[in-house]
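Entry 12.
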Amino acid sequence: MAVIRNAQLVLISLAVMTTACSTLTHSDARQQGRQRWNQVRGRVKCQLAEQQYQAGLFEDAMRTITESLALDPNQVDAYALLARANLELGKPASAQRVLDAAQRVGVTSADLIYLQGVILEQRDDVQAAIEEYAQARALDPNNVDYLVAQAECLVALNRPAAAFELLDEHADRFDDEGTVSTLAAHIAALLGNVEEASKRYERALVTYEGSRLIAEELGRLLVRARRYEQALAVLGPLAAKSNGNGEGDGAVRRALATCYLATGDSASAKHVLSDYAASHPDDTLAQLLLAKAAIATNDALTALRAVDLAQQHEPDRPELWFVRAAVRWKRGNLVAAASDLYDVLQNNPEDVEANCLLAEVLRGQGQLTAARTYFERALELDPACAWAAEGLKSLRNAEWSEPMQPPTKLTSFVAGQGADTNPRALASPPVGRRPAGMPSAPQAAGPGARGVDQPPGSQ
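Predicted 3D structure (tokens):
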């Protein structure tokens, strides 16, 4: 009987254990089902947050993604999206807390590492940011944002050559991505490598199917490199498609005018600028270029009007004194022109064009020895200066009864700089001084003095 009772006890115990195990398994299944359902709900909310983020609704996206993470705290994409939304709202500290939270739960990704680099870069810890970007690239070498960010940081650390090498090394991987070509072109231009820069701009133009912005960059690069015919081929179609009021239209027209002036086509330079300059009186560089084109086409009134407008907005711009002197020279106001040019040379005695123009003014006053001195000075500064060489030759041949008119002499100094580069670094010209050791100008007195322009022959 004892044996039977023991057997019954064993059977009862087994039954209890089986029932308990069956109950635990059912509970686990329910828990797992709930977890799977929460994961699905979390993914749906994450997708909604992504849509809100793309629509610029960053606050809404943050609320939605927080709900998503409450449902499933292991979503890598959700942490990245929440960090991005915080960065968009200018909250890098909050973004950092999101990344820290992701690290605590043990989730990581190339995107989270990249965002850590973004935060470090915003804190000006550029070297640390580079290391994060490199680590992100190691995890996902096909993401162009990681490569571009690393290259930009290298440029920020004054290592453009290393940035260019990095982009070049991975160019084949992103041969259909214009961002890499465009950034490489910018850096090549920064390094002074016009050939490499133009090649990459052209490659980006193909990728972006004739992007106006990239075409502008290429055209202006060609202008700075003095490859004017090529620049005209790139910029001409842009101006033809413009209505004259586009945001980039001024840059295109200034660059085109620079090309036309440099190639001796002053009439085209004047044509491309006339309407634009009239509707944009505050565009000082456009007024300056228009004045130069007007001088070269013997339109003194347009030149004076353009110079006056330019001086209203930038009275101390150095080129304006040179151009005003040229206008006065063309109008026969030689005394005032000489006074302007002495002031220019007082600040920058190595200004080749100012030396040449002063020589012309002095020759017009019959001061041939002084004129020869300034032409010789210009040739010392630039042995390739055709204006100075022809001026000296003319003086030697006693052909000085009429001022020379080489086509580019009043415009070449701007063409050499490009359409939108910084002007030559001269201070505001003082009044009444001349470069030491150079011949003096006649005293500017009476109606021909500085600031009073007269018609030709009124001296």
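Annotation: Residues 2-54 form the longest helix (53 residues). The domain at 34-108 is CATH 1.25.40.10 (Serine Threonine Protein Phosphatase 5, Tetratricopeptide repeat).
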